[in-house]
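Consider the following input, taken from an annotated entry for Cyclin (Sorghum bicolor).
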Amino acid sequence: MTMESPTTAAGDELESYLSLGLTVSCSGKDSAEFPKVLLLLSAYLDKKVQENEELLDSSKTKESTTIFHGQRVPELSIKLYAERIFKYAKCSPSCFVLGLIYIERYLQQPNIYMTSFSVHRLLIASVVVAAKFIDDAFFNNAYYGRVGGITTREMNMLELDLLFSLDFRLKVDIETFGSYCLQLEKEALVLVLERPIQVQAANVTKHLICNSSADETCKHELVRERYSSQAVHGCSW
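Applying the prediction step yields:
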């Protein structure tokens, strides 16, 4: 089930952008606060994951396994994962709204469902694609892989699969973008903001890795980026 696309006035859209924190400045990214869009997006994804898993458990619906399905559910919650991406990837907040649109377009394929096993990879891939499409500057996939806790090869494969599934149609008109922003705010009234995932899988080897060592690597990369003319860092607002 996808979000509705109500017709909205420009004033309402601007107010929504401000409320979601989409107009955060580049310097604001270094603050302790995260834009509201991360909280609402993670809550929305969390709800959809719960609904899909209940549907699959209660019916004979057959789910198709995709490249986004891991063999193990990541220990990191969707909310903390979204915050991690924002903190280290340094992408604009709008990338998360655009990423949500890409995710829902991807999920329109038959028998494809977003579950605890796929939501994290869908999120990192969609945000990375969005950052490369709308931000002034971005990192390479080796770095994004470290941010997302996956290998460079897997990051490359996720990005390509998403792009081909979307038929490389990444442009989103302002009306659609605005409607998603407004709908996220409306969803905030009814969503349970955090649902810890307790699912475990036995005999697994592949999983998202988010540890202190990876964090230090990302931190060093960001420090080097600030003092190197070869590294780029942009803000689209």
